[in-house]
Amino acid sequence: MTADVRWNRKDLLGIRELSAEEITFILDTADAFKQVGTRDVKKVPALRGKTLVNFFVEPSTRTRTSFELAATRLSADVINISAATSSLTKGETLKDTAKILEANHADIIVLRHSSAGAAQFLAERVRASIINAGDGAHEHPTQALLDLYTIRARRGAIAGLHVAIVGDILFSRVARSNIFALLKLGARVTLVGPSTLVPRAFEQLGVSVSHRLDEVLPTVDVVNLLRIQHERQRKEYFPSIGEYIRLFGLTKARAKLLRPDCLIMHPGPINRGVEIDSDLADGVQSVILDQVTNGLAIRMAVLYLCGGISAR
Ligand code: CP
Question: Which of 86, 185, 244, 299 has the most crowded CB, counting CB atoms within 10 A?
Fold first, then answer.
């Protein structure tokens, strides 16, 4: 592993607090774990004897299974808990639930929660490593790390690239974590969507804001499409889905505006035919399944690094 910084964090709560060197260190560490995935024996003993709890209070397919597989590949013991099967349904608090897990010697807790700040709340109250697997509309750090890993693997570097993030930015933890990570590593970022979901206030983060997708598409190296997050919206932010597709959907006609080497990304879950045409999602410019595969190496790296600190 070729990094020039030491890792000294027991928790991964967000990208905002990481330095560019720490982000690069995680990506480089993931490179080593990606190699492990190509071997006949895909397991390493790095977390043997450690217990990881996958604590998902919000639904997930990709992130939960990816963390479970990553922990298994690192030889940790894994327990999965969902909101529906936990005593949260009986009124137990998040803190008490975490304390119970810790009393059972959980070393790492991977938390997905609907409230922004939930991961930080636990990190300040338990000794176990806390890994944020998405907290409300705040951050989703491992998603941003796997997105950057995928871009770097395809384009060689992040610095100097122009990345468009399209759709529901206001309610997106994926967008926030990607913005922080891309800017720290020297990319240019343009956010695109309806003014109600992409207000000009985002410019304060150091990004550009546009409400005209057709003008942005020919200028970008990467287009990252986001789902409309109806579960977090409390009112209507655009007239209709048809109107949204007409103005902001990546249709086949609109995709002709892209450079041939522009990468098409989506964190999932995809609403095919809404934010992206189904054929484009499966097409030659799409790296959506690479993102999933790379997510495993990134989560192995994060568990290895943070789990190593918690073990001291
Ligand atoms: N991208 C992502 O977080 O997907 P899941 O909600 O399926 O975990």
Answer: 299
Q: What is the mean pLDDT of the chain?
A: 93
Q: How far is the CA of 4 from the centre of ligand 1 (A)?
A: 31
Specify whether the CB–CB gap between 192 and 164 falls below 8 A.
Answer: yes
| CA–CA dist 57, 94 (Å, integer) | 10
Closest residue by Cα to atom 5, ligand 1, is: 60
pLDDT for position 229:
73
The confidence score (pLDDT) of residue 235 equals 66
The per-residue pLDDT for range 185-198, each reduced to its tens digit, is 999 999 999 999 99
Is 231 close to ligand 1, i.e. is its CB under 6 Å away?
A: no
How high is the pLDDT of residue 238?
A: 77
What sign does the dihedral 94-299-116-266 (CA atoms) show?
Answer: negative
Please list the helix, strand and coil fractions of the chain in percent, rounded to the nearest 5, in that order: 40, 15, 45
Structure tokens at 294: 């790379």
Query: In angstroms, how far is CA 226 from the centroid of its own chain?
Result: 12
Q: Distance from the CA of 284 to the center of ligand 1, in angstroms?
A: 23
- Flag whether pLDDT at 37 surpasses 50: yes
Enumerate residues 6+ apart whose C-beta is below 8 A from 168: 193, 197, 226, 227, 228, 229, 233, 237
Any ligand 1 atom below 6 A from CB of 270: no
Q: What is the pLDDT of residue 308?
A: 80
d(CA 265, CA 134) in angstroms, rounded, equals 18
